[in-house]
Amino acid sequence: MKAHTYETQLTITPEKALNFLKEGNQRFVNNLKANRDLLEQVNATREGQWPFAVVLSCIDSRTSAELVFDQGLGDIFSIRIAGNFVNQDILGSMEFGCNVAGSKLVVVLGHTKCGALKGGLDAAQIEGMGMDNLNHLVDHFDLTIKEIIEEGEERSSKNSSLLERLNQQNVKNAIDDIRKQSSTLRKLEEEGKIKIVGANYDVETGVVTWL
């Protein structure tokens, strides 16, 4: 499988880009990798890159987008931050990927058993560790937790039901933030030039579920 070129990128629709990722995850789950010469792809992309998708995922070492979607060099822009949430710099990266570099799809990829979200649920314990920047990060999820937690429900990473609901809602909130905070991406989506979608990766099975 060769690296994408400017010409091949032009033929890709948002729907086709999504199918590329769905097919790639199916290969991953079945332990069937596409036949790629990565050194050939290095050579083919030395003058430029034409990725078809932007994937925002967590830094979790089990969730590399290139691996779980079986993609090669030059295929996707991969943005990673603990808890796969959106900020201004990430939005700028997405705008570059879609409006400048021509990608047709934005994916927010959450995952089961997310450590960052566990940290949000256990924020009181995290704060006692004296890590100011980590405290700031896990505080990002506090409003979402308060939105979804039920009266009397235990706020703890041991509450697997709450953790998974938080995972799903966190992905949805990130998509909402993309549309609300980036007029560029919102316009591209309204014009049908890109899709913005959410997905969830199961760390036990390797399966990506599309939300």
TrEMBL record:
InterPro entries, A to Z: Carbonic_anhydrase, Carbonic_anhydrase_sf
Enzyme superclass (EC): lyase
Sites where the protein binds Zn(2+): 58, 60, 111, 114
Cofactor(s) named in the record: Zn(2+)
Alphabetic keyword roster: Lyase, Metal-binding, Zinc
Entry EC no(s): 4.2.1.1
MF term (GO), any: zinc ion binding
Cofactor binding note from Swiss-Prot or TrEMBL: Binds 1 zinc ion per subunit.
Tree of life domain: Bacteria
Stated family: Belongs to the beta-class carbonic anhydrase family.
Protein name: Carbonic anhydrase
Organism per entry: Chryseobacterium defluvii
Upper classification of the organism: Bacteria, Pseudomonadati, Bacteroidota, Flavobacteriia, Flavobacteriales
